[in-house]
């Protein structure tokens, strides 16, 4: 039976030759939105109220200032929440004033790094880039990113040559795209994550389909061809669709060591068209790879932008050969991990869709620095800390593969939390390939609200109990009782409690976990901290208090 690929069901439009011609100094500027889009934006602006927008801006910024003054935090997300309560259309009102429009990014993993890559590329291309780094990736955070750049008269300041890059939570995407009407929408991947919040991947896919239905035909979709769940989003879209993916079969895990394959978490096994199970010719990790359905012929789209060759030069440097419809170019990615190849490809494809020349793509990605918790490097008294966020089984597996592939023993601090932002259900740790860490750690500290659960998982992975130092968030009930009994005995005997007695039987909390892990890391070496999301926030808060790193909302955009 003849196969009908996703690409045949909905042909993607390759990057036009005109967009790839050598650009002059003036041609590097991304083209403005098409005339119909401009007319729609002008009509909407006439229906809006600058006065009400001005009131919303003032109310939001005042709330943010009060929050900072009272030390409730950075006073960022509250800006958008208050502004939207005053004027629900404030995002639509302000977004329409950006000369080069907006770009949105969504996906389970990779949003923040991809956003950082794209921002660096566009800045090198001469644009003023705004993003929602200061706020959250929910609708309120998107609103904040615009309101803090608005004037009291309800208009954006310096909107000329400006473009916004908005990292958007999976569940918030339909609401955000309805407001900003983006020029480009980038989807990175879809994995199981926070089941108690999102549900299964099918629930997120439904939200994304709803969001795409609300996009105008002038939007360009950027989709991961190697993720079957993401690739199918382009099937019925009326606008332009560009795919990216990896073509280097040397990265295929199907023909590598069995332990890699055994722990691959497959979140998209079946064809969305007929329900048949996908067959993979190559799989890079999880369900990412080259696939087809033997029942209906649905298959991986041919990427418009592809990594044809990947060479790992060092832990922090990968060299890619990038194929486009017109040429092959080299691209250096200054971050570790296979997942960052996909992030770089997504960024390059989005930049080309915005008519960027290749030079700012190369310089923007190669000169990018690791962003908040995604390979971020922090120096402390002659030692280095590397923060590697791991918030779901696929992400954790790829972090472990990155850490332990070269057989170099590592100093590691794992932090597992079960707060609301992490997801209360932590059963996913049994899908993580912790066996890969066996015999490959010089020191191993485990912390967080579920430190004991993680220590048990590591014990089942074959790591000896005496190799694991557990730093729970607080004493267990039995330890509290023992500590209370010691203190009563000391009072009866009129003894001054020792520092160890005052501290309890052992250390507790993130502060002590960092101290213990650093103490076991020799001078000149690196401590790898692998936390879940709220664990990352706790680590950053502690490092901020020590003066080792700025607040995560600082270092904004021009």
TrEMBL record:
Residues 1-56 are annotated as: Disordered. InterPro entries: Lipid_II_synth_MurT, Mur-like_cat_sf, Mur_ligase_cen, MurT_C, Znf_C2H2_type. GO terms for molecular function: acid-amino acid ligase activity; ATP binding; carbon-nitrogen ligase activity on lipid II; zinc ion binding. SUPFAM superfamilies: MurD-like peptide ligases, catalytic domain. Pathway: Cell wall biogenesis; peptidoglycan biosynthesis. Residues 271-292 form the C2H2-type domain. Zn(2+) binds at residues 271, 274, 293, 296. Keywords: ATP-binding, Cell shape, Cell wall biogenesis/degradation, Ligase, Metal-binding, Nucleotide-binding, Peptidoglycan synthesis, Zinc. Residues 1-10, 41-50 have a biased composition (Basic residues). GO terms for biological process: cell wall organization; peptidoglycan biosynthetic process; regulation of cell shape. It catalyses: beta-D-GlcNAc-(1->4)-Mur2Ac(oyl-L-Ala-gamma-D-O-P-Glu-L-Lys-D-Ala-D-Ala)-di-trans,octa-cis-undecaprenyl diphosphate + NH4(+) = beta-D-GlcNAc-(1->4)-Mur2Ac(oyl-L-Ala-D-isoglutaminyl-L-Lys-D-Ala-D-Ala)-di-trans,octa-cis-undecaprenyl diphosphate + phosphate + H(+); beta-D-GlcNAc-(1->4)-Mur2Ac(oyl-L-Ala-gamma-D-Glu-L-Lys-D-Ala-D-Ala)-di-trans,octa-cis-undecaprenyl diphosphate + L-glutamine + ATP + H2O = beta-D-GlcNAc-(1->4)-Mur2Ac(oyl-L-Ala-D-isoglutaminyl-L-Lys-D-Ala-D-Ala)-di-trans,octa-cis-undecaprenyl diphosphate + L-glutamate + ADP + phosphate + H(+); beta-D-GlcNAc-(1->4)-Mur2Ac(oyl-L-Ala-gamma-D-Glu-L-Lys-D-Ala-D-Ala)-di-trans,octa-cis-undecaprenyl diphosphate + ATP = beta-D-GlcNAc-(1->4)-Mur2Ac(oyl-L-Ala-gamma-D-O-P-Glu-L-Lys-D-Ala-D-Ala)-di-trans,octa-cis-undecaprenyl diphosphate + ADP. It comes from the Bacteria. The active site is at residue 425. The keyword Ion transport does not apply. Its EC number is 6.3.5.13. Forms a heterodimer with GatD. Belongs to the MurCDEF family. MurT subfamily. The lipid II isoglutaminyl synthase complex catalyzes the formation of alpha-D-isoglutamine in the cell wall lipid II stem peptide. The MurT subunit catalyzes the ATP-dependent amidation of D-glutamate residue of lipid II, converting it to an isoglutamine residue. This is Lipid II isoglutaminyl synthase (glutamine-hydrolyzing) subunit MurT.
């Amino acid at each position: 039976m003849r196969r009908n690929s996703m690409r045949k069901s909905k042909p993607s439009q390759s990057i036009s030759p005109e967009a790839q011609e050598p650009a002059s100094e003036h041609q590097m500027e991304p083209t403005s939105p098409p005339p119909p889009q401009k007319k729609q934006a002008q009509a909407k602006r006439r229906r809006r109220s600058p006065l009400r927008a001005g009131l919303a801006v003032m109310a939001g910024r005042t709330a943010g200032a009060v929050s900072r003054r009272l030390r409730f935090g950075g006073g960022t997300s509250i800006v958008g929440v208050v502004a939207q309560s005053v004027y629900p259309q404030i995002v639509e009102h302000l977004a329409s004033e950006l000369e080069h429009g907006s770009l949105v990014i969504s996906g389970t993993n990779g949003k923040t790094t991809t956003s950082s890559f794209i921002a660096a590329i566009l800045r090198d291309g001469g644009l003023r880039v705004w993003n929602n780094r200061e706020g959250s990736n929910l609708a309120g955070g998107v609103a904040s990113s615009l309101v803090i750049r608005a004037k009291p008269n309800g208009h954006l300041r310096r909107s000329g040559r400006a473009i916004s890059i908005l990292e958007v939570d999976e569940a918030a995407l339909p609401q955000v795209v309805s407001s900003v009407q983006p020029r480009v929408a980038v989807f990175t991947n879809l994995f199981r994550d926070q089941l108690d919040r999102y549900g299964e991947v099918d629930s997120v896919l439904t939200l994304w389909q709803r969001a795409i239905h609300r996009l105008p035909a002038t939007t360009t979709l950027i989709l991961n061809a190697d993720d079957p769940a993401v690739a199918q989003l382009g099937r019925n879209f009326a606008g332009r669709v560009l795919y990216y993916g990896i073509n280097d079969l040397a990265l295929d895990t199907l023909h590598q060591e069995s332990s890699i394959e055994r722990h691959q978490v497959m979140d998209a096994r079946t064809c969305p068209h007929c329900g048949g199970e996908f067959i993979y010719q190559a799989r890079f990790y999880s369900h990412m790879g080259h696939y087809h359905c033997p029942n209906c012929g649905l298959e991986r789209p041919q990427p418009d932008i592809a990594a044809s060759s990947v060479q790992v030069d060092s832990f922090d440097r990968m060299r890619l050969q990038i194929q486009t419809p017109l040429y092959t170019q080299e691209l250096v990615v200054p971050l570790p991990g296979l997942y960052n190849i996909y992030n770089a490809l997504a960024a390059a494809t989005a930049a080309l869709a915005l008519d960027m020349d290749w030079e700012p793509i190369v310089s923007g990605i190669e000169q990018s620095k690791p962003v908040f918790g995604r390979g971020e490097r922090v120096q402390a008294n002659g030692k280095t800390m590397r923060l590697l966020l791991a918030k779901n089984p696929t992400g954790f597996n790829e972090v472990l593969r990155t850490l332990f592939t070269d057989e170099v023993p590592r100093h590691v601090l794992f932090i597992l939390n079960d707060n609301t932002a992490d997801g209360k259900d932590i059963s996913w740790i049994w899908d993580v390939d912790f066996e890969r860490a066996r015999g490959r750690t010089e020191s191993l500290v485990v912390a967080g609200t579920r430190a004991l659960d993680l220590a048990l998982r590591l014990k089942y992975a074959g790591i000896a109990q005496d190799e694991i130092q557990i730093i729970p968030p607080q004493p267990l009930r039995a330890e509290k009782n023992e500590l209370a009994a010691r203190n009563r005995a000391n009072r009866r005997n009129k003894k001054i409690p020792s520092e160890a007695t005052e501290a309890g039987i052992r250390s507790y909390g993130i502060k002590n976990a960092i101290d213990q892990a650093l103490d076991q890391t020799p001078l000149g070496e690196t401590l790898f901290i692998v936390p879940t999301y709220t664990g990352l926030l706790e680590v950053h808060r502690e490092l901020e208090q020590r003066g080792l790193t700025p607040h995560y909302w600082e270092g904004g955009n021009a």
